[in-house]
Amino acid sequence: MCSGGRSMNQKISIIRKLLMRCGKEGDEVKFLVRGLQTKLRCRLAEPTVLTALAQSFVESPRE
Fold it and tell me: Against a cut of 0.85, is the pTM above it?
């Protein structure tokens, strides 16, 4: 995945982009977040996922 001093920012950016591409129904978002938390063991801390989730909602286009 990402390593080094800026790895958390890189991970947040990747997750944010994935979340912004998810469908509007919520099932894709739910699966993605659950997978990133611990079940798929992607070495991501909870703050990384929460930050990316918040940023994706702020940056997503309004309807």
Answer: no
